[in-house]
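name: query_chain
kind: protein
chains: 1
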Amino acid sequence: MPGRRRAQTDKIDGPYDAARYMGGHKKTHEAGYIQQYAPAHPLASPSGHVFEHRLVMERVLGRFLTREEVVHHKDDDKKNNAPENLQLFASQADHMHYHRLQDAACYDPEMIEAVRKAA
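structure:
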């Protein structure tokens, strides 16, 4: 039936393989992340889209990411999904801990004084 969304259990050409996924139709999510159309992906949204940075990390690792795993953009550019710009965290808690450490370094008195002297 044309226009019907493919069910997660429908077969395409065998099981979904994250390491072989070559990409599909792209769109930008309201938060600024790029999404790709991948309706056979086990974690696809109801519209069949998956965040591109998650697909890239899955391809690098050769496995699916769990729902708990978080992919971080090192340069904070949500559209830069180059593998070398992505970092995997086991959980949102680990990701937030990383950001707290980064923010703490910005407010370190020694760092502030070093920047002040350099200016």
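note: DSSP finds three helices and five strands in the chain.
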